[in-house]
Amino acid sequence: MLYRLLSENLRAQAPWYALATVAMLIVAAMTSMSAWIMKDIVNETVVSKDMQRMFFLAGGVATIFIVKGIATYFQIVILSKAGNNIIAVTQKRIFDRILRQDLNFFIKHPSSDLVMRLTNNAQAARSVMDLVLTSAVRDLFSLIGLLAVMFIQQPILSLVTLILGPAAFLGVRYLTKKVRDIMRQELTAVTKIIEGVQEASTGVRIIKAFGLEEHMRERMNQSVTQVEHRANSIARLSAATSPIMETLSGLAIAGVIALSGLWVVGGDKTPGELMSFITALLLAYEPAKRLARMRINLEAAMVGVRMMYEIKDHPIQLTEAENARPIPEEGGGEIVFEDVGFSYAPDKPLFENLNLVFSAGKTTALVGASGGGKSTIINLVMRMFDPDEGSIKVNGLDLRQVSFASLRAHMSYVGQDTFLFNGTVRDNLALGREGATEEEIVQAAKDAHAHDFIMNMPQGYDSPVGENGGNLSGGQKQRLAIARAMLRDADILILDEATSALDSYAESLVQDALKRLTKDRTTIVIAHRLATITSADNIVVLENGKILEQGPQRELLAHDGPYRRLYELQILPQLEEA
User: Fold this and answer.
1) What is the DSSP string of 268-336?
2) pLDDT for 187
3) Strands 546-551 and 397-398
4) Is residue 576 pLDDT above 60, yes or no?
5) Does residue 307 share a domain with residue 353?
6) What is the count of structural domains for the chain?
7) 389 backbone φψ class: left, alpha, beta (φ>0; ψ -120 to 50)
8) Strand (E) or helix (H) holding 164
């Protein structure tokens, strides 16, 4: 997984990482030189008292730190640019992958989980790249350079300090294993926090109406507390490297000072060599500690990377055929189900050998109890799913052979759960058809009887609708959705309880508009109120995935069948009251 992440991003960011590597090598070189120069500072100035030499060395020290500071600046800026690009590219790829999934994917992955993977996990990819690059280049080369200084000055003492390395490695390895599980638990809790905020925002009316504030508060507190505890656990594990490294470093430095002090007193080594060695040892401590901690930080970030790749590698069930082509113009939008089989679960088929025809230019209504398969038929027509068996054809061409662009262009949809994007009224209407003129947008709104309430809004067509149309009533949202469908002017129209949120007066107005909209179009209507489908050319009664009967209303009412019984339950009482 790490190799894959590195190979994908190192190639894409090669120029920037090359520049950053040069900057980090300069930092490493300057760090090593700052230790090396201590030998001359002590021997030439303190011991020999050569003032001219001291001023020269002072200038050298200043130069070393100036160069190091400039190189560090460019390192940070370049790595930030590359890292931000990694986040942007990763988020675009994940979002593209999400959009290409079928409906089952979204059933299994709640929006809070997808938000977390798109944000936190993309950030984790950058963190891994930064960790690997800074540790592999800056810290590693700094450590190598400082060890070189140490070996040149005191080879025997350098070997003594290196003996302590395996002990530090074993301690860090133990901590790394514990971090992996805790980090995944923390990310799961973060998902719960996002989920809680989304529910509080979208369900605020229900929360307040039922007095659920305390319940929501307790749920959020539990999730936040879990994240807090997990974060503290990871912090403790990460910090545990400090006492390990501090203890080992303290033992090493104490031993070095004692032994080298004896050598200096004995005349075997100069004070400058001792100072240079100790300086290198002290400077080596920080990169060594970062390298030791890197394993823990890397494992924590890799948890997010693995979750990111779970989405990027999720198989796409709905794919476009290599030879996909547009819907044939001949046929008028006829849709034919031929021996269609479909199931949400392998052992529970919903449809078996379903045969159904949506005649071109005609209106077909789907009625029946909930769970009968009405919405699934619509999803299959729009190719949100593919059938397990059989075929669905539009104008004689199997949907699996139709290009997605052509399929979407020939269909328009109005659902009972109207979704509006966070923008203006005009923005939402214009989504119906790219390039629509202002006159066409206004005319569609008038046809849907939405123009009057739009003009009464503070900014007219430029008024913001709010998140998911929060500034509008349910009826207003549905009229905008109908206007959007009218603007699309597609051959196939799908209406899923399209007037369910309208009052009687508004519905009567919109029904007139819908009659004009459905004229000469292949229209599929889902309706629970039979009064809205009395003029349908064909009514299909569904129950548990099976067609009980179908035909025009007058034929279905002519005999005692399921539709007639539904009609008597709904329509006759209304007629008697009237």
Assistant:
1) SS-HHHHHHHHHHHHHHHHHHHHHHHHHHHHHHHHHHHHHHHHHHTS--SS---TT-BPPPSTTTT-EE
2) 73
3) unpaired
4) no
5) no
6) 2
7) beta
8) none
